[in-house]
């Protein structure tokens, strides 16, 4: 089991026991807390180096300004009211689930699950479950990842590797990556500060925050996939049942352990909703058998179709599919709600319209939009696109958070090269950065020859990975307008901008749907947002 790096006194544990399902495990569920506190706590969580329980104690329970006792009630001793209520209701839920097979009832109850000190690799596997869950992960942009506990950097020590001949190689490589990350923070900060000095009109706090974000954005590529992170997940019962079923039959030991402990903790709060994910339950056994057989057969078949991946020589994004009839499909769907005709008739009719009339229909769906938060109608979902992307793992982690689409990645490798930030190129730091990347590649190649999935843990975030997006126009519009904003990481801004360009090149009529995509470049991209945030806080104080 992954170690829990936080310790609490007996009095603190006594307080925490009322609000968390476990005061010592790295996986636990929130309970007896109003939704307003859960939401605020999870929001703060992603930008703090503290664990969720420490945050709860320090900034909520023991902070008089939060009026926590008034909101959450007195710290009463005795029976746990929520536990009693759960037990009382469990028979009712079980009777409905067994008697009527109504799975949808699992969507009517939920829980807040904290999963701490897990690898970034594991966090992505958890976030890959798309429907019914809302994950939030510790940010590499706001938090320094070079802290040590008992003299050791915080990265996952994969049990199979740690009992193999690769143990020392793995530890040495991960430690060197963290050493380099930590060592380069001060000189890179000085270089960027010198290149972009603070203007008198910019507050020191806003400037410092944007400077830190710029430095950490540059250096995050040195962090291996084994780097430990914290995440909070809010989800309904059906989501957690499906998630745990997937984790239980994952090939990596870490994911299996997370599935097991998540089941244990969620059983204390929403037992009826996730009971079919227990490892001996017939539904779990059937799912595991199906998954193993399917994955095994696909893996064997894929061996027959390997190539040299010559088309992956260049980093970037490439549209590999679009529907040439998309404009007519979207236009017909836009008219459908206001018509008595069939969808097929409307889509065929729009094909025969003069171009000017077709464009008027498309304009009607977007001309009144005043900002990117005004979402377009569902008719845009009739146009779909498939993009194949080769970019660094850090960018994959950023864009992967968009779950209203179909996406899949291949195993992490060191086979497609890596990204070197322009701020580092041509400086004395470049050699140390490159040496660390080369060391990681050699370690990966050695471990992957025998343990290809476990070898992913040693791959730094700067190395390129291969994945695809299959996405509709409505979701793509949201993604491109959001991820091209000035505050974003320059690498994923490029991917977002390029997807919008390629869609508009393939179907110029859709250019009107991307009017809030920002195609400009920015140096200290966070500066404007940090300034606005501070001004807002000052007005509220």
What is shown here, in short?
With 541 residues, the chain is α+β, with helices and mostly antiparallel strands. The protein has helices at 10-16, 35-45, 52-61, 68-72, 81-100, 120-127, 159-162, 167-195, 204-219, 237-248, 253-266, 271-274, 282-302, 326-336, 343-351, 355-364, 393-399, 429-448, 473-483, 490-506, 527-540; strands spanning 27-29, 110-119, 133-137, 148-149, 152-153, 228-236, 316-322, 384-392, 406-409, 464-472. It contains 21 helices and 10 strands.
Overview of this protein structure:
With 541 residues, the chain is α+β, with helices and mostly antiparallel strands. It folds into three domains: 10-139 and 228-296, Gyrase A, domain 2, CATH 3.30.1360; 148-222 and 420-461, no CATH class; 319-408 and 465-532, Gyrase A, domain 2 (2-Layer Sandwich), CATH 3.30.1360. Helix content is 48%, strand content 11%. It has 21 helices and ten strands. It has helices at 10-16, 35-45, 52-61, 68-72, 81-100, 120-127, 159-162, 167-195, 204-219, 237-248, 253-266, 271-274, 282-302, 326-336, 343-351, 355-364, 393-399, 429-448, 473-483, 490-506, 527-540; strands at 27-29, 110-119, 133-137, 148-149, 152-153, 228-236, 316-322, 384-392, 406-409, 464-472. The strands form three sheets. It has a four-stranded antiparallel β-sheet with strand order 1-2-6-3, sandwiched between helices. A hairpin with a 2-residue loop joins strand 4 (148-149) and strand 5 (152-153). Helix 8 (167-195) packs antiparallel against helix 18 and helix 9 (204-219) packs antiparallel against helix 21 (527-540). It is globular. It starts with 9 loop residues before the first helix and ends with a helix.
């Amino acid at each position: 089991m992954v170690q829990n790096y936080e310790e609490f006194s007996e009095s603190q544990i006594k307080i925490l026991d009322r609000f968390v399902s476990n005061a010592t495990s790295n996986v636990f569920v929130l309970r007896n807390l109003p939704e307003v506190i859960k939401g605020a706590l999870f929001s703060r969580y992603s930008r703090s180096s503290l664990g969720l329980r420490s945050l709860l104690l320090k900034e909520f329970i023991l902070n008089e300004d939060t009026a926590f006792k008034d909101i959450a009630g007195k710290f009463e001793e005795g029976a746990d009211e929520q536990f009693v209520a759960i037990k009382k209701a469990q028979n009712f839920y079980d009777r409905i689930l067994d008697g009527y097979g109504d799975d949808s009832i699992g969507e009517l109850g939920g829980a807040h699950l904290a999963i701490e000190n897990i690898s970034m690799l594991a966090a992505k596997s958890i976030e890959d479950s798309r429907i019914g869950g809302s994950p939030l992960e510790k940010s590499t942009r706001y938090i320094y990842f070079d802290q040590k506990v008992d003299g050791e950097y915080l990265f996952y020590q994969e049990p199979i590797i740690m009992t193999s001949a690769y143990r020392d190689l793995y530890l040495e490589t991960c430690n060197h990556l963290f050493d380099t990350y930590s060592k380069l923070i001060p000189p890179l900060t000085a270089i960027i500060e010198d290149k972009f000095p603070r203007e008198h009109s910019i507050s020191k706090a806003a400037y410092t925050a944007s400077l830190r974000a710029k430095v950490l954005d540059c250096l995050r590529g040195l962090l291996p996939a084994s780097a430990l992170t914290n995440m909070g997940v809010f989800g309904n019962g059906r989501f957690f049942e499906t998630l745990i079923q997937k984790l239980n039959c994952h090939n990596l030991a870490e994911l299996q352990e997370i599935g097991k402990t998540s089941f244990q903790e969620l059983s204390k709060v929403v037992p009826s909703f996730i009971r079919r994910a227990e490892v001996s339950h017939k539904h779990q056994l059937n799912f595991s058998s199906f998954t193993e057989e399917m994955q095994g057969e696909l893996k064997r078949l894929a061996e027959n179709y390997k190539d040299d991946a010559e088309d992956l020589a260049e980093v970037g994004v490439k549209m590999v599919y679009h529907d040439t009839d998309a404009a007519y499909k979207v236009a017909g769907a836009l008219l459908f709600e206001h018509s008595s005709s069939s969808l097929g008739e409307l889509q065929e009719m729009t094909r025969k319209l003069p171009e000017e009339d077709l464009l008027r229909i498309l304009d009607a769906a977007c001309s009144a939009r005043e900002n990117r938060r005004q979402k377009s109608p569902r008719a845009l979902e009739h146009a779909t696109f498939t993009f194949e992307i080769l970019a660094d793992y850090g960018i994959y982690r950023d864009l992967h958070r968009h779950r209203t689409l179909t996406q899949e990645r291949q195993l992490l490798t060191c086979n497609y090269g890596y990204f070197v930030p322009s701020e580092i190129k041509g400086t004395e730091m470049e050699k140390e950065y490159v040496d660390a990347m080369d060391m990681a590649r050699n370690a990966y190649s050695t471990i992957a020859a025998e343990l290809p999935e476990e070898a992913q843990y040693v791959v730094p975030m700067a190395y390129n990975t291969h994945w695809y997006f299959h996405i509709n126009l409505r979701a793509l519009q949201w993604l491109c307008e959001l991820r091209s904003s000035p505050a974003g990481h320059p690498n994923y801004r490029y991917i977002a901008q390029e997807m919008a360009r390629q869609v508009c090149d393939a179907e110029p009529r859709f250019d009107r749907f991307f009017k809030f995509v920002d195609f400009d470049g920015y140096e200290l991209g966070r500066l404007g947002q940090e300034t606005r945030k501070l001004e807002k806080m000052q007005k509220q104080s």
